[in-house]
TrEMBL record:
The protein's name: Helix-turn-helix domain-containing protein
Residue ranges of every copy of the Helix-turn-helix domain listed in the record: 12-60
SUPFAM superfamilies reported for this sequence: Putative DNA-binding domain
Any one GO molecular-function label of the UniProt entry: DNA binding
Source species of the chain: Actinobacillus minor NM305
TM regions (residue ranges): none
Length: 66
């Protein structure tokens, strides 16, 4: 039987990214403003998708920096 339930991607707040990656809020803001980390705004809340975080981390590991 086919699964018709859509899967929702995990999204992280700045606070969660801070805990997950150890980046400060200002570092995350700078990365977003530089276009290196793409954010999603939902009202007043800024979110980052799990796929975006994975893309960023993969890019960092290829370049050897963040």
């Amino acid at each position: 039987m086919m699964n018709l339930t859509p899967t929702l991607e995990k999204h992280y707040t700045i606070k969660e990214l801070n805990e997950l990656l150890g980046f400060s809020r200002s570092k995350i803001d700078k990365l977003a403003k530089a276009g290196k980390l793409h954010k999603i705004k939902v009202g007043q809340t800024v979110l980052f998708s799990a796929s975006e975080i994975n893309r960023f981390l993969s890019e960092c590991s290829q370049n050897g920096k963040n």
